[in-house]
């Protein structure tokens, strides 16, 4: 099922940027979880066009979510939770000249090769709009995770090559309320200047997002193919524009010695808890299984491919054309991609939590 | 199913390093593919202990594969292909003192938290030995891919922070026959010196592996959650020791402008073929769908956690201990990990090839 | 995923009888299939309350389907096809006294035991209303099957123990237009009399439905667990009220000799076609794989459990109560169940068709 | 995955009747379950050729099972449990003349149409020998179910049209030790006479098997597509020779009134338990969810298609031939099919038990 994610806590999505709307079904959510539309709407509002400060677009949609099933008297019933977000602001005329063109950096050509037909209005399923359904599904996952006190945060640590840590100390806890979801306050004017410069040049930017999950119990993840980090990599890399995923020390792990990279174990503060560590090169995952420590992930986000500068391209007949993308586009997928990456992390952890529950639930004293 | 990979071309594996042996079942391989044990054995021999030159261990096993089903008169029948590799050289006494300890950098603690029981002899399913079953399954996948002329290569581009490209020009085509599966000849003495130095220090090393798939048709991959790069990231990150996966430009994409990162399209040499590009920052995948160009991936491999130096750790009761890992261990997972990463890439592409076949097979002229 | 059916052609449904509405997502439908809302509406109209003649209810809803995604310029794009059917006529007051009761023959008690919470208004997911989403999904499956000229029909062969074949010759081709979807015209007055009598007695009836699929190519179905008949049995038994599924000779097979039951093979009329048979005890499936002949299935439908007569029951506290179900209910699930069974057969065959396509698509002359 | 059964407790099988052997992998079995080869061997011995009394074949194999992984110190570790049963007694010469023929009632033709190639020695995957792997997997499932005190029995209630209940009272508890796994002692001489008569006529017989599962907790099964009875029907119909599956009242439900069919609820003996019933027309399942009462299933088993009498058939070229099956064959799939049906029931219940565990495990007081 190409449009579903998860084995036990499953999100199936649908919708294009220029149809009736987008939506999804969360199946497998346990009963008894408090859930209302406001919780989902709060996450969606962070992904909304225009929320990104200088880097955002002018396309504005309210992105109002409607729950269609699975809730009764304010709690989940254990049955499928469907939701829908209507499309409001569709300007098909902006896109209709793209029917015969393949844009560099976009999925246009691949869709034509895959399906032989393509909804050329705004990218169809490859549109960033598809991610609103992920954010809604992720909000439901977070409601489940909250029952176990698991929390997830995400923030931007680098934009266009400028690292936030060169300008201020990490303060990820307030990132969601800052422009760019920046990890610190001090870097904001520097990034603003860069964005203005790039915008006037008709170009676009990329960046790096950091995701952290706290209070994840030790023992989540499967030993072989569905290692926790493998499924997280799948989840994050499935977001368009992500070109790399790092767990813990990431690429840098390749340059460390074993004696540096190993996170030494120290006795826990309370008996029965996982051991303490003073470093976290593992990123909270060893052998594919959570250690109980914070899970740390980084994603590289590529620059948005829709640039105002002229580009060499071809049409569906394979003939050379010069392409100049009109319309008003985002300069950077950051920060709108940040709640999407958070949502994918939540969906993964919710699924892995349920997968683990089946394993350790042999009634004690019976086996 | 935690021990299965793939939706249509599926590998399910079993076995521990200190049981009867390891093996697996490939289900969903089409009928009529030429396949014999020699093809599989050839890939297994590249993963065998001792094949790694200076970085390898002295544990030697023949790792002889036996096909148990699914082949008739030299070709696949379309039914499950099972294989088995017996364990030969088990020295349980080397490991028995680890029953009560949790080794830093290893999965020991996670297994105890997950299952409440752990086969402490050599790591159980978290042992590197498990990967032999992946290599065997990957060889079967490669037999299928060969019917479409798809080929995969893998080589080492960096070891312990020393980049091969600083010493010689890329020559990946011969990498499989070089020590370390190195991408060039010239770096070999430099890496040898580094390995000797690290071994005498009782420490270990990591590195970076590059995987390339050629002749992959345009159109593989699913638009949303099962993007081709997402499933490849899942596949590669599921190999123990991998801490990061990059597609195309990878982490560097975060620092490029859109005008740099977009691979401009030029008319193909033959009508109907995908457009040509002179760059490949996309790594052969756009919007999660293959473009027809070479697929380029990089994996960061962490240093092996079993080091000879003393380490702080705890036992199952959470009490502090000083751990010194005995036995003879590899200095680096490279190059033995190289055929494993190649196998996981092959398994992913075989599955995606079959997934695509169902989509485009509406008889022409009927729809 | 408890609310999904199919591996490659997948239907995921949602919705309760007393929420916003019901709907679903079909994922995996190939691109290029002609599809519009009218095709789906036509099937839905056959399932609509009031369509059943004397046996039906007076609850009337238009059951208007809206396609939300996956169609562009009148054909499928290969992306998920979502649809929604709003609930219109909800009389919650009819049901609110059932919150604390468990009705015999209903799922009430099981839901409470399973989830600890239950949407008691009209049965939640166990409501017959859920089947409208199956009918819509099945209509999409039939659009795919039509590209291969595969057709499915369903009709009623027995009602309340009265067999149609005792009154007239089989004429299944016109069944969809007859009351009760009856297999012949002559039995109609007899069934009408029976229904009137049972209704006045405050009781309900069951019956037997026959499903036939024609022009199914030989070779569909998997050899072991996903035999074609096994998946069909799963599909049909998943419809509430079905208590038995028969393939071909069904229960009667247990009383036949091998020499009677074997369908002898005779040369086909055209070379390359499957052999002809003059009998069809196999029901078009041998060893779990379609033979190319008509697939014949029968389902036993139990009487509707909501009866007007008083019944012994218990409440959620386990205390004895006397239950008398109010409201106006159907006397028999037939004929409204008939298009549902047809839809489930279509969903199964569409999935099996795509599953087979991946297997036989090794390019000729390459293997 | 065509050779896998189950979502969380999964059995994947491999092997043909004339290859190295058959086997399988059980994945998803929780850790801490007591399991040894003897438990599995006991079930296998009941399926062994020659165990069937007069109805059995003379092909004798020890069918010795070997556990290859997943067990440590006598208990399951939570990792995949693989097993292998070597083929011993292969007389390929008995079958080689069938390479070019399609036998009526067999899967030969379907395999050729499906795969274009067929292992004609003994039927390949369609051989009854494949079911030994199901019995082994089922024995592991029963070990899990035993931790919840769930037990399953199966027995023969009808053979060649002769019903046991016409000759003696039901005594299913001892059926496993009787010839034909008969439900009573008194019918044995009658069935023996029938078998002798049919054997001398060169013909074969079918029959009906009854399966009962006790102590299944209320709440197993999913509301829509994976109703407990739907998955059980899938499981049982996936056994070759089964042509019908009945739940509870089965086909007879179609002829009952609602007032007869509803099982009235009475207060339970202990508070918190499911209500009592004095009838069980539901067969222990309502709305697809277990009620806590005994689960009752019946399967119709068709006569074995390999008969000694001459039959009309065709060869692969479609030319008419007269077929006379040589070799010594069983007269009836009963009783060897009985432990297979029991195993499939166990596999289904084990999977459904784990599927339910994930749902009800929200820590109390947190939601």
Rounded radius of gyration of chain A (Å): 21 Å
> Care to count the β-strands of chain A?
17
Mean pLDDT of chain A: 90
Structural class of chain A: alpha+beta
Order of helices and strands of chain A: EEEHEEEEEHHEEHEHEHEEEEEH
- Total helices of chain A: the number is 7
Give the strand order of the largest sheet of chain A, numbering strands 1, 2, ... along the chain.
1-2-3-7-4
Tell me the helix content of chain A: 10-25%
Oligomer: homotetramer
**Biggest sheet record of chain A:** 5 strands, antiparallel
Q: How many angstroms does the end-to-end distance of chain A come to?
A: 36 Å
Low-confidence regions of chain A: 360-367
C-alpha geometry of chain A: globular
The largest contact between protein chains, plus residue counts on each side, is: A-B, 115 and 116 residues
The percentage of residues in β strands of chain A lies in 15-25%
